[in-house]
Amino acid sequence: MPDQLELLAGGRSHAGWESIRVTRSMEHGAGSFSLAVSERWPGLDAPRQVRPGERCEVRVAGETVITGYVDEVEASIDSSSHTVSVAGRDAVADLIDCSAVRKAGQWRGLRIEQIAAELAAPFGVRVRADVDTGKALTSFAIQEGETVFDAITRAARIRALLVVSDSTGGLLITRAASARVGTTLELGVNLLKCSVKSDWKDRYRDYLLKGQAPGSDYFNGAAAAQIAARAADGGMTRYRPLLITADAPDIAATLQQRAQWEANSRAARSLTVTAVVQGWRHAEGLWAPNMLATVVANELHLAAELMITAAEFGLSGTEGSTTTLTLTRADAYTLLPIKPMDDAGNFWTVPKAQAAK
């Protein structure tokens, strides 16, 4: 199917776009869109107006990528044109914007998806998990003033889980996927632009996690009150410690996983690759976050299998339809050991012979 975008708002279908920006990201929770649209569509006798607050759906090439609400509508007119700018977000945006409110105190003995479902229920947002979320949390409580999404994310972080929109108005609790895009992105072939950024300011050498666990007849005193775990980033050579207080009471083994995840994610996210490709689709479907893709840009000393963390679909009069991909190292979201760079400081994760082809 050719690149097409459709906005369904207020039970009506709208087209005739002048410019398009649709973003899905693993980091931002809710997908977003911004469209410039003519208020009068061809073949209609009267203009149709999109209204803020309307339930909406955005379809890219026939596939639903955002289900939520219109946030903003701005009309403008001059001597030669009359346009309307429409912006909105996925339904998960209500969880991002709104405070977490609960009369009762702590949750005890519930799994993360159960806590998330209770918090999201008043907003009509469904919650599901497509992975094993681990054992039930001993206890969990809302922090004063935090949003619903922050509370859910904080609970998920205890088990190194990801919380993302599922594109149909629901919330998905998941982990980094292993699905791969068959299309290699190669500079000079199908990659229009590429940039590589290394930023170490949020990276540390030593990570110390401290927490507590509920006591019992067999587990009490200092053993329960002073649980600690450590992880190290061998790529950081200078002394840079980071002390983190655990988000909830838990056992030492889980705390150790959290420490390792913190070290891995910060090291991996220190590398950000931005790639621009023509069109909105690869050989198997739409570009989407949480998929692995091979990027080859030898001029930038890059030949790696990376995780797509964001995909932005764009349309302009100068470049046509494009997709801007944000990628980082795949171990940013796993508990696997940190992958080293080679002696020259390059991050090669595909054979150099393949990268040279």
Structural class: mainly beta
Largest sheet: 14 strands, mixed
Helix content: 10-25%
Give the class-level CATH name of the largest domain. Mainly Beta
Sketch the topology as an H/E string, one letter per element: EEEEEEEHEHEEHEEEEEHEEHEEEEEEEH
**Domain module count:** 4
Looking at the overall shape, the CATH architecture of the largest domain is Roll
Question: Tell me, what's the shape?
Answer: globular
Tell me the strand percentage band.
35-45%
Low-confidence stretches: 215-224, 341-345, 347-357
Oligomer: single chain
CATH topology grouping of the largest domain = Phage tail proteins - horseshoe like beta roll fold
Give an overview in words.
The chain contains six helices and 24 strands. The protein is mainly β. The two termini are 30 Å apart. The chain is globular and about 70 Å long. 35% of the residues are buried. The C terminus is likely disordered. The strands form five sheets. Strands 1, 2, 3, 4, 5, 6, 7, 13, 14, 18, 21, 22, 23 and 24 form a 14-stranded mixed beta sheet that branches. The chain has a three-stranded mixed beta sheet with strand order 9-12-11. The chain has a three-stranded mixed beta sheet with strand order 16-15-17. Helix 2 runs antiparallel to helix 3. The protein folds into four domains: 86 residues, Roll (Phage tail proteins - horseshoe like beta roll fold), CATH 2.30.300; 80 residues, Phage tail protein beta-alpha-beta fold (3-Layer(bab) Sandwich), CATH 3.55.50.10; 101 residues, Baseplate protein-like domain - beta roll fold (Phage tail proteins - horseshoe like beta roll fold), CATH 2.30.300; 62 residues, Phage tail proteins - 2 layer sandwich fold (2-Layer Sandwich). Helix content is 14%, strand content 41%.
